[in-house]
Specification:
One of its GO terms (molecular function) is acyltransferase activity, transferring groups other than amino-acyl groups. 33% of the residues lie in helices and 31% in strands. The protein is an alpha+beta fold and 162 residues long. The chain has five helices and seven strands. The longest helix is centred in the first third of the chain and has 15 residues. Helix 1 runs antiparallel to helix 2 and helix 1 packs across helix 3. Strand 6 and strand 7 form a beta hairpin.
Length: 162
């Protein structure tokens, strides 16, 4: 099941965010990079602020009803976050959420969705039809790290011939 954020979800999102960074992140990033990235984990109140601001937070749930992954799509078409809990990776949650963001963006009239994908998220975005614009090397709390500027053009779905 996929649904949008409801107040009360903020603690699960914080847990997914931190667990993803600290338990999945080491597959592509070193300990200093993980520590700098984890220091940016959002407080529960920030999730409520994003929701109140109008950003679209979408959550994928397991069959048992446990929050497994989420995305945060800003009104301007920037997909700011995609995180999956380590217990639920490689189960299709991330790809379903990215595809849902595209469908939502298309319905809202967005021409493009952009993102800054981690090394680990890049394959999901590629599978969803995004293209890499450039690798971005930067400092996070003084620690060198990188991600990828990516984008996807949202063309209207082709109509089937009658």
């Amino acid at each position: 099941m996929i649904r949008t954020f409801r107040p009360g979800d903020e603690h699960a999102l914080r847990d997914i965010h931190l667990a993803s960074i600290t338990r999945v992140g080491p597959l592509a990033y070193n300990p200093a990079q993980i520590a700098a990235w984890a220091s940016k984990t959002r407080d529960a109140e920030e999730w409520l602020e994003w929701h109140d601001f109008g950003d679209r937070i979408t959550i994928a749930f397991t069959e048992e009803g446990e929050a497994a992954a989420f995305t945060l799509l800003e009104a301007d078409g920037h997909l700011d976050m995609l995180y999956c809990h380590p217990d639920h990776v490689r189960q299709g949650h991330a790809l379903r959420l990215v595809e849902e963001a595209s469908a939502f963006g298309r319905a809202k009239g967005l021409a493009t969705i952009t993102t800054d994908a981690s090394e680990l998220a890049r394959p999901v975005f590629l599978a969803a039809g995004y293209r890499v614009e450039e690798r971005q090397d930067f400092l996070l709390d003084g620690v060198p790290i990188h991600n990828y500027a990516m984008s996807k053009d949202l063309m209207p779905e082709p109509e089937l011939a009658a």
